[in-house]
Amino acid sequence: MNKGILLLVNTYHAEIKRFLFLLVMLAIVSIFQGCASTPKSNDQHLDPVDPHEEINRKAYDFTDRIDRVVFMPIVNSYIDYVPNAAQRSIGNFYDNLSYPNVVLNDFLQGKVRQGFQDTLRFAINSTIGLFGLFDMATHMGLQEHNEDFGQTLGVWGVTPGSYLFIPLLGPSSQRDVTGIPFGVFTNVLFYAGIIVGAPVTIPLTFLGAVDKRARLVGPMRIRDEAAIDPYLFVREASMQQREFLVHDGKLPLDLYYDEPFQDNPFDSEDKDKKIKKK
Does 257 reside within a domain? Predict the structure, then answer.
């Protein structure tokens, strides 16, 4: 009886993963189809950074509704009833599970010294830090880094391309969307699911999603309170953050005059002065 139930749960878990994968792939395909089919009559009105804004806005609205109706009640309970110290340990645990992705992209970007440091960081937190629950590596002077395959492509010279909003996953771009499978296959939880099965990995995956959303409560509150257009707020903030990460905080000067780093469109006089000075 127990074996039958376990087999049923494993099958259900596999179907959920297959469904989510197909959902993401369908969203990506539909978005790229939107990129390929550009309306002839409205070419002059398309934003070169976001030429398929209509599709992106629908994906954003759908994700926002799911977030407010399903996730936020759970996240609010998580924040209210789980002690801060426990939340930090949970966050450390999930950061450590995904840290092999950082190590891999350190080396792909040619950051050999940082790669060995991050390897040591992962090893220390996985052992002395009790599977990452405690960030002992930081106390030993090993700084935490944030690298992924989208940043690696940026370092290699690949431009971001057009902006994408992936349903349920959030803001991305034609370049950065390639980092999604890398993030999945370099996460320890993916391989734990193969070894121990669905009864362990489904609750862990769900808790990880709740923890990740809880960390975004502050920025999302700023979005809701300060942004006239929340979609544009998320788009501009995410694209600027991505370029900041690609250049390790050292943005080239000419990037400030390119999208999405242009000044306010109403400041046309200031732009004219800059052009004349050149």
Answer: no
